[in-house]
Every structure is written in C-alpha cells, then in structure tokens.
Amino acid sequence: MGQRHRVRLGCLLGAAHDILLLDEPTNHLDRDGLDFLTERLRAHPGGFAVVSHDRALLRAVAEEFLDLDPSRDGRPQLFAGGYAGWQEGRRRARERWEHDHEEQLAERARLREAVAGARERLSTGWRPDKGHGKHQRQSRAPGVVQALRRREAELDAHVVTVPEPPLRLRFPELPARAGTPLLRADEVAVAGRTARPVTLALAAGERLLVTGRNGAGKSTLLAVLAGELAPTTGDVRHHATARVALVGQEVPDWDPEPTAQEFYERHVRGLELNDGIAPLPLAATGLLEKGARHTPVGRLSQGQQRRLHLAVRLAARPNVLLFDEPTNHLSAALVDELTAALRETAAAVVVATHDRQLLADLARWPHLRLPADG
C-alpha cells in the first residue's frame, strides 16, 4: 500500500499545480517518502492546504491551523504562529474551557446542597430548643419555607451554559507480572514477507520500537507476535498469564449496524463470560464522545473507528500491547495522550511506526530495525 501511495503522491507533486489539497498525505509512507513529501511542500511555490494528523509534517510546513476538533462554542478555531502557536492556543483554550465548566458544576452542586439544607431545616432543623414554646416554633416556620423557596428558585434559574469539554484518554490499570517473560519469539520469519528471522522476549513494563521501510515486515512481525499469523519458521510462545492485544493499522470488518456503545457492550460481555474480565465502561476510556457512542459503527469516521478499536483492545486488560502505526487517523491531541499512556502503563508495549514525531518521542526505547531485504 505504501509503495502505491508514494507513486500517486509523486505524480501529484510533480504536476506543478498552483494549489495543492492533500488529505492525510503521510499515511502509509516510510521515512524516505516522508522526507520527500516534506521537502517538496517546503519548496512548493504555490499554496497548499493539508488535512493531516502527522505532527512532524505540521511542525515542518504549516503556518496557520484551522482546528476542527470540538470547541467550546462548536465552531472551528483558527490559530496562527505555526505548530507552537497552535499547541499553545489549544492548551489555553482547553484549560479555560475545563475551568469554567468545573466552576459552573461546582456552583450547581452548591445550590443543590443549599436546597437540601433548607428542606432539612423545614422538616426538623428549625425546631427551637427545649424550653421554648409552641408559638415561637410556629413563628419561625414561614421564614424557613421562604428560604426553601428562595433556594429552589436559585437552583431552577441556574443553567450550565459551558458544554462538557472533550474527554481525555484514560488507560485502565493493566496487569503486570514483574520479571516474567510474557512473550518470546525465537528465530521467527515468514517466507516472502520478512527478510531475516527475529528473536525477542518481552516482560511486563518493557518497551520495543520497531522500524523499517515499507515491505520490511513490521506488520507481519506484529501479527506473528500476536498469534494471528503463523510463522514459516521459528516459534512464538505466550506465558499462561499473557493477554496480548494487537491494534493494527486498519480496523476489523465489523458489523456496521449496531451503535458503537452496543457493539462495545456486546464485546465486554463476552470478555466477562469467557475470561472473567470485569467490564470497562466505554465512557471510562475517554475515547468516544457521547454522540459517537450512539452512532452506528458503519457511520463512524475512520478516526472514531480507530478509537473504538483501541477501546475494545483495552477492555481485555492486556499486559502486552502491540501497536501498528498507532497515529494513523488519530488527532494530534489524542496521539499526545496515547504517547503519555504508553510511557506510563505497566504493560509491555511494542510500537511499529513511521511517524517521525512519535519516533522522536520514543527515542529512548529499545529499537529493532527490520531490513528491507536480505
């Protein structure tokens, strides 16, 4: 796929158009293709508009950002100042949004407490101490009733005008068994798809970054490690306690009819019945907003389907996570959150990627480079 995409992109860039409109141009490109695209866009004499989640490309070529992610007023946001200006503007807008929403929720909670307190005083709390007469108790009743009505009116008049901010990604606590190899691969290879045999072992908390040109066999290796593809030679062994989850480049061919919520709940019920895994609510992952959760799977965008795919994998509480090009179709904000989660999780993590920014972010991880040929 990457080689065909590069040919089409090369034809477009070589045609000397005045204006270029590019939709996710870096998907399926290897490092050479990414460098080629970046340099051609920098040198392009005309204008161009790029729809992209590739943070390194955006950092290198973009001057203004029209951000279509959810905003406080529901409208797109325009940021100047290049990549740094966009990130800083987004951060400040998000902080203000969350602060104002929390303040309004806190005020509503305070008003509810005031109403509850007034009701309590009406029923019991306004009664005078012993030794005071019935007349004094009766004389205080109208004031307590008025206080209750005043509190109820304040609560009715209060409206939360700031919409709920977007959710943030939250990994569940993933099981860890320190010191025990969860996965071993000994001299594994797939004829015609990998150039050389690979040997590796992963224990809880360990990390591995896999790189290589298109056709080097990164996706093949991850499928072999996950047990979804049998190697031609060699052997893969999973520990008895290992739960291995592969998040591939493309989502599976799911039933398009159920909503994302229905599909997810069906999946987690199966995990509970078959494996005894406690259900993880979809909303608790922070991956899909309410509207998307109630949208049929077939009508979700590519990015939303990728989010659902990740949620489904996390629901299994894996202790080995395999990611094949995890940044494809995901927003820059979610990629930043995912990167932080991958650094912090107790699970073993393998990431195969061409994403230059992700490579820079994970540069300290152990690195497996796959050759393109023998």
TrEMBL record:
<dbReference type="InterPro" id="IPR027417">
    <property type="entry name" value="P-loop_NTPase"/>
</dbReference>
<dbReference type="InterPro" id="IPR003439">
    <property type="entry name" value="ABC_transporter-like_ATP-bd"/>
</dbReference>
<keyword id="KW-0547">Nucleotide-binding</keyword>
<keyword id="KW-0677">Repeat</keyword>
<protein>
    <submittedName>
        <fullName>Uncharacterized ABC transporter ATP-binding protein YheS</fullName>
    </submittedName>
</protein>
<dbReference type="InterPro" id="IPR050611">
    <property type="entry name" value="ABCF"/>
</dbReference>
<feature type="region of interest" description="Disordered">
    <location>
        <begin position="120"/>
        <end position="143"/>
    </location>
</feature>
<feature type="compositionally biased region" description="Basic and acidic residues">
    <location>
        <begin position="120"/>
        <end position="131"/>
    </location>
</feature>
<dbReference type="Pfam" id="PF00005">
    <property type="entry name" value="ABC_tran"/>
</dbReference>
<keyword id="KW-0067">ATP-binding</keyword>
<feature type="domain" description="ABC transporter">
    <location>
        <begin position="169"/>
        <end position="371"/>
    </location>
</feature>
<dbReference type="GO" id="GO:0016887">
    <property type="term" value="F:ATP hydrolysis activity"/>
</dbReference>
<dbReference type="InterPro" id="IPR003593">
    <property type="entry name" value="AAA+_ATPase"/>
</dbReference>
<dbReference type="GO" id="GO:0005524">
    <property type="term" value="F:ATP binding"/>
</dbReference>
